[in-house]
Amino acid sequence: MTDSSAIPFGTGSRQRQHLAEIVAAATAAVAPKTLLANRLSILPPGERLLFDGHPFPSTDCPLDLKTVEKIVVVGGGKAAAGLAAGIEQLLGPARLKAHRVKGLVSVPAGCQLPLTQIEVRETRPTGINLPTPAVVDATSEMLAMLSQLGPHDLAIVLLTGGGSALLEAPAAGITLEFVSDITQQLSAQGADITSLNTIRQLLSRVKAGRLAAATTAGRMLALVLSDVIGDPLPMIASGPCLPSTNSLAAITTILNRHDLPEGSRAAVLSLVQTEALELLSPPTAAGRWRTPQGCQVDHLVLGSNATAITAASAAAAHCGYEVVAAITDKSSTPAEEVGYRLADRGLELLATACQLGRPLAMIEGGEATVHVPSDHGRGGRNQQTVLAAAERCAGRAWPAGLLVASFGTDGEDGPTPAAGGVIDQMTAAALLRNRDQLLTALRRCDAYPLLNHCDGLIETGPTGTNVADLRLVLAHPNPTT
């Protein structure tokens, strides 16, 4: 959980204190261990798994731990450590011993937790969202664990934001370097998460249902903390437990939309035309399917961006704001356009707040895209968003009482130590003194140095969770009271 009292960006103005409280509440609401404890339980004497008090996955196909012999837990993502801790807490010492529980999860640096049966392994540096040799080694160990299970065993897979880079085993003939190069090329050209993960699925022997297909267990339960807007299960962590539904036409459209080197494009197309899109049996229900080896797979979404929006809205109301909109932006819009829109909406909201004589707020979830130039600087999509919001007001003074912020719930925003950025009257005044410098920073995706210089960064450190980004507009008619 993020402690609002310890957040530097929460010092100073009253609105910044409100911002810190809202950020802390949003991230606490999607803390993985807490989510799991609140939503999953086990009912004796049959040891039936319950989700929100009801048999899961259904009353006609329940998961009774009494019939399970061995349990293996694997997974990856920024919240995987917390979910693993929640699993150990849910099962308790007696069940951990009775079911001979063991496991391994892959997490970024800074997310280590000491557990008794499940190893939490840091496999990539903070701020570098690409697979590493350590990721491949960990994933290979997970595949070996899954392949040793029997028909009366249970595999639990923990899938969270960041899992695409933290669960990886390149397909035959594909190198890890090629996977990273393609990922970076698409990201730099503003590819959204759906396009990015669609291509990632082609390059991997664990994505698009292949992790699940590798197990010999009788049942598999995938516990999901979603960082993809709308919670499409095949896209979260690139869908290691669900088969791909992508067509050749869809993949070709993605490749045509982005200017990849001809060698990279040809390599991807060759995968499409060979064995990469093998036909796996389609899901029979939302998140449910049976693998070629006969494993019954079920998915359970524990939390998502909507969970954080709800908590942020409640925190804003507690701070005295009337929340006029709490929405999800499902579009993959460039960060600059998002920033311009937030600034325009903020000015309208402040005018209304002044007319009504009470504070108003807008909370929005989403994930913007950024087109990164070859001469890029240092920044992230959230910092780029708020820098664009400031630029929108160039030529006029940023009004007192208006605050615009955007941050990643994981505490990361690009290859920087910041989670995002915030613009208020103080920050905007410093930024707008030199508009040419501001425009250059926007063009080069170099927001971090400017925001760092003018106290415009949101820094939380790694939060141990990830449900995409939140954007806030706070409009107060009397910001000093």
Structure characterization notes:
It contains 16 helices and 16 strands. With 481 residues, it is α/β, with parallel strands linked by helices. It has 2 domains: 31-169 and 204-244 and 280-303, Rossmann fold, CATH 3.40.50; 306-475, MOFRL domain (glycerate kinase, domain 1). The strands form 3 sheets. Strands 6-5-4-7-8-10-9 form a 7-stranded mixed β-sheet, sandwiched between helices. Strand 4, helix 3 and strand 5 (102-108) form a beta-alpha-beta unit. Helices cover 38% and strands 18% of the residues. The chain has helices spanning 14-29, 32-39, 80-98, 133-147, 163-166, 176-188, 193-202, 210-213, 248-257, 262-273, 305-318, 335-356, 381-392, 425-431, 435-443, 447-453, and strands at residues 40-43, 48-51, 54-55, 71-76, 102-108, 118-124, 154-160, 219-225, 289-290, 296-303, 322-328, 360-366, 402-408, 420-423, 457-458, 469-475. The model has no long low-confidence stretch (mean pLDDT 93).
Using the coordinates shown, work out and report the CATH topology of the largest domain.
Rossmann fold
CATH superfamily name of the largest domain?
Glycerate kinase, MOFRL-like N-terminal domain
Count of separate DSSP helical elements: 16
Number of strands: 16
Q: Helices and strands: which structural class?
A: alpha/beta
Straight-line N-to-C gap: 28 Å
Arithmetic mean of pLDDT: 93
Amount of beta strand: 15-25%
CATH architectural category of the largest domain: 3-Layer(aba) Sandwich
Largest sheet: 7 strands, mixed
Provide the CATH top-level class of the largest domain: Alpha Beta
**Poorly predicted regions:** none
Count of spatially separate domains: 2
Helix content: 25-40%
Q: Which strands sit side by side, in order, in the main sheet?
A: 6-5-4-7-8-10-9
